[in-house]
Amino acid sequence: MLNTDIKDSYCPNCESSLRKIILSQVAFCPQCFCKFSSTIKELLPITDLKTPNPTSMNRALKNENYELAEKLKSEQSIPEQEHPFLFINIEFHRNLESQQFLNIENSKHHSRILKELKNTHQELSTLNNVNPSLIYIDVTEYIRTLHKHHISYGLINTDNKTKTIEDFRAKIYSRPIDTNFSFHDDFGFLGSDLLQLGHAFSIKAGIALPHLYFDSQIPRIAKACNDLGFSLSPLQVNKHKPLIYTIESISSTSSSLKDTIKDLIALGSEILNAETQAQLSSLQSSDMTCYKHFSSRYWSLGSLPSIDKQEFYHYLEDIFCAQTFHYLDTGSPERITEQLNKELPTLLHTTPSSANKETKDIPLDTFEEFLNNIRG
Description:
Blueprint: H1 18-24, H2 30-35, H3 37-43, H4 54-62, H5 66-76, E1 87-95, H6 110-120, E2 134-136, E3 141-145, E4 150-157, H7 163-173, H8 177-180, E5 183-184, E6 188-189, E7 201-208, H9 210-214, H10 218-227, E8 230-234, E9 244-249, H11 257-284, H12 289-301, H13 309-324, H14 333-348, H15 352-355, H16 364-375
Antiparallel strand pairs: 1-4, 1-7, 2-3, 3-4, 5-6, 7-9, 8-9
């Protein structure tokens, strides 16, 4: 067991104690890794995994060693392939030595955070306002400021190809190391979360599992995911009958991004096979649970003059699944899918506590658009 009672063990830069770092599994500045290197190695499942050093590629190109540069590029690149998910959300976590971000709890300094981001990120130069912790560059890419020194670069991919993810990875990995993030020879890329070092990423993928849910097989699927290094959670944790789930990587400290995506796609394909079997079993039996659920949700919408945001998100998930699995023969599946994709940024970044506060009705034109998309 680690000795968390060490006296006077504090980071000389941020003054975080070793005990605080161990209990929270969070490093609060780059110097934490230097000061407590041996203890962090003892704490984490560090392996002999070769983490791509961001200076290696630049050095090889500068020395005109193009063969080595191509080899390094091939080792890091995600192979182009199709994936079976509704969406993939990936974040690269970085530790920014050159930028002094304030803690996200301090919401009085938007302008300072925005100014610092604009200085480093040209794509943000036209922004005039910023959420204290989340900035969308466009509909798919965002930047999230975390604790002091820490930032995540995020992508929401809604097509079924890995090329978009690889392009995003290449862009993030090409950022200059001397200004944008710190790299440690022992730990790889540094983020705040001690479970997200190494390649320093987190990745989650969306998958619709209505028949497995109504067949009470979700606990079994969740256990299988956990055994393989992933977690299974509802997309909307406060939804009474969750039908869309996210499969998320548990740690990047001892796994490469390429291998994680390969394993994720294989796992997702197996789960979709199980969902197909559950659907066939439901159709071949007299069990009408799925049909009754979707029918009830469809017809109840017609009697509602308006709905609040939380109800809208819940209905949107149900109607999307109803159309995806052919329980509805009206409406526009493409438009419902488009509407779901439009709401993904909110759904992926909403906490259970904030979701329960969504009591304000959605605009009437949004509600009418939703109804028109369902009825065709």
